[in-house]
DNA sequence: CCCTGATTCGC
DNA sequence: GCGAATCAGG
């Protein structure tokens, strides 16, 4: 794979959006996060949005915008001054969610989920699974949408419409999108109910 | 352990 | 220019 205009643009866009190098790498495909980081540096857009690393030391805050300086001509770059405008929210649609443990009311205001969210459905869940879920939810890592990765349980907990909403975040079961407990309630064999003899 | 970005350096 | 290996954190 090579850095075509298009790929570079995607890289720039995502980097500006605050996406991590690994996420960008996955999006682009064919490259590792190292490649992405390397490219980012070569492109000279390492520091994202004037992040103020704020050196521990005293007042060493130049803050001198003084841009017109070096950089002869031949530069159609965008100055991108104060990138204060929030760049966060990306087009990822919040997954619909419902309190799995039947913990609370159901709102379902959120449109629809994509591949992520499950929807245990009003289905009945085995008491065992339900119990374990209740328990792990107490130790959930409470990750935000952006903190989810391929190895964090994506089970939604709480009401998406309120601040009391987060994702389980515990280590996922290999190959599954959820942790062991949530896999248990997410993937019901389809008929464990009837004469369940477990 | 998982992850992050930063740097180096052979290619 | 490229990116794996490595470093330095969280």
Short description:
With 198 residues, the protein is mainly alpha-helical. It is built from 5 helices and 2 strands; from the N terminus they run ααααββα. It comes from Rhodovulum iodosum.
Rounded average pLDDT: 67
Structural class: mainly alpha
The largest sheet has its strands arranged as 1-2
Span from first to last CA? 52 Å
Strand content: under 5%
State the share of residues found in helices, binned by percent.
10-25%
Order of helices and strands: HHHHEEH
Radius of gyration computed on alpha carbons: 23 Å
Q: The biggest beta sheet, please? A: 2 strands, antiparallel
Principal-axes geometry comes out as elongated
Q: Unreliable runs, pLDDT <50, ≥5 residues?
A: 50-117
Number of helices in the DSSP assignment: 5
Number of strands: 2
Pfam families: GcrA
InterPro entries: GcrA
Protein name: GcrA cell cycle regulator
Organism: Rhodovulum iodosum
């Amino acid at each position: 794979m090579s850095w075509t205009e298009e790929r570079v643009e995607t890289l720039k866009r995502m980097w500006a959006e605050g996406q991590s190098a690994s996420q960008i790498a996955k999006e682009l495909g064919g490259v590792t996060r190292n490649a992405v980081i390397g490219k980012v540096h070569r492109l000279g857009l390492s520091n994202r949005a004037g992040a103020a690393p704020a050196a521990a030391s005293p007042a060493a805050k130049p803050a001198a915008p003084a841009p017109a300086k070096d950089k002869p001509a031949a530069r159609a770059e965008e100055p991108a001054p104060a990138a204060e405008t929030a760049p966060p929210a990306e087009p990822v649609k919040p997954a619909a969610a419902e309190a799995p443990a039947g913990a609370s009311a159901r709102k379902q205001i959120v449109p629809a989920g994509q591949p992520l969210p499950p929807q245990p459905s009003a289905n009945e869940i085995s008491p065992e699974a339900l119990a374990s879920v209740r328990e792990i939810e107490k130790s959930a890592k409470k990750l935000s949408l952006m903190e989810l990765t391929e190895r964090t349980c994506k089970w939604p907990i709480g009401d998406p419409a309120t601040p009391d909403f987060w994702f389980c975040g515990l280590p996922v079961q290999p190959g599954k999108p959820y942790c062991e407990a949530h896999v248990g309630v997410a993937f019901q064999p389809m008929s464990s109910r009837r004469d369940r003899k477990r």
